[in-house]
Amino acid sequence: QEFFLQAVTEQWSIVIHGDYDVDGLTGTALLYSFLRHSGANVKAFLPTRTLGYGLNPKTIQQWIAKGVRLIITVDCGISNSKEIALAKEAGIETVITDHHGVPEEIPDALFILHPKVLNMPEIQNFAGVGMAFWLVSLLFDVFPLSYPLTTYLDFVAIGTIGDMTPLRGLNRTLVKHGFHQIRQTQRLGIKALFQIIKRNYQTATEEDLGFQIIPRLNAAGRMKTPNIALQLLLAHDPAKAQDLALELDELNQERRKVCQRVQEEAQEHLPLLKENKVVVLADAAWPHGVLGIVCSQLVELTGKPVFLIAIEEGICKGSARSPESFHILEAMQSVKECFI
Questions:
Q1: Dihedral pair phi/psi, residue 157, rounded to 5°
Q2: DSSP secondary-structure letter at 21?
Q3: CA–CA gap between residue 239 and residue 93 (Å, rounded)
């Protein structure tokens, strides 16, 4: 608490580094909104899928040149030991909020808020947005604001459902109260999205979020830039919110068409791979932004782990999904020398 109070009071240059999916962008919106209202000198950064997941050395170098003093990660960072070491050498502190698998080497960050690192079973089901909310809850009393902490639970509900983390224990409680917050929301972006899907936010359901709202928020990062969705969540102008919601709706329609094409093309190859224990397919014409969705569909269809890969300028980028019985991250870590 003392550290963050100093960083805000002394107007340190702070960057929140999120992720391009709905979990990362809601967590980023939550943390940015809190720090902004607390008087911090803060900016939000969401990478594009072309730049890639997690911290990037080139981005770190740019922040070093701009005098950034603190990086806070949302839904990423636990696997970025090298990048965090680079920042630390330049005098930049890093605070990690993440929930992904813990690697063998844990980054040398100032603070790490991660369920396994903290060894806290009660938050083991938290998504990235849940860990961002956990950080805000630890700091909320230090920066007395004119609204309650529960104001941010709409972001938590959207991000948690979007990340499909188990709704058990404290996670379930947060999402339950998050729906209460959505049904009385004052956020123009959320209202605009519900207007686009022709639903009433005051009677919002899990289906509204899971099948309508979340796909549109995710479409920004899959098809263009996640900043469109972030701007929508933080919008203060009704006309701007409507324009952004319409743009997300159009991007989602485009995303559906591309997903359908990629799935049909991938399924054509499945008969040739019926004896394989793992499905691995690559195509230079596939946009990697939609491959995670198609991966999940093929896992349901085949019952096997699936890797779908796009090839861009000689670099393979893709997504992997697997049945619950197979730990795909461990499998990939066992051959980590194969990956960039």
A1: -65, -45
A2: S
A3: 38
Task: Look at the alpha carbons of 109, 112, 117, 119 in this order and tell me if their dihedral is positive or negative.
Answer: positive
How many angstroms separate the CA atoms of 334 and 246, rounded?
A: 44
| Number of CB atoms found within 10 A of residue 247's CB | 18
User: How large a percentage of the chain has pLDDT more than 70?
Assistant: 100
Are the beta carbons of 68 and 16 closer than 8 angstroms?
A: no
Task: Determine the residue type at 72.
Answer: I
The region that residue 165 occupies, defined by phi over 0 for left and psi between -120 and 50 for alpha, beta otherwise, is beta
**pLDDT higher than threshold 90 for residue 313:** no
Query: What are the start-end ranges of the H helices in 81-187?
Result: 81-89, 115-118, 128-139, 153-163, 170-182
For strand 306-312 and strand 315-321, is the pairing parallel, antiparallel, or unpaired?
antiparallel
Kindly state the DSSP code that residue 102 receives in the 8-state scheme. P
Q: Are 160 and 27 in contact (CB under 8 A)?
A: no
CA-to-CA distance for 234 and 51, rounded, in angstroms?
23
As given in the structure block, the two tokens for residue 310 are: 């796009």
Give pLDDT tens digits for 185-215: 999 999 999 999 999 999 999 999 999 999 9
Output the pTM of the full model.
0.92
Residue 334's SS3 state is: coil
Task: State which amino acid sits at residue 140.
Answer: F
3-state secondary structure of 295: helix
Dist. CA 182–CA 201, nearest whole Å:
7
Query: Is residue 122 within 8 Å of residue 173, measured between CB atoms?
Result: no
Measured CA to CA, the distance from residue 193 to residue 242 in angstroms comes to 8
> Model confidence over 247-260: pLDDT tens digits?
999 999 999 999 99
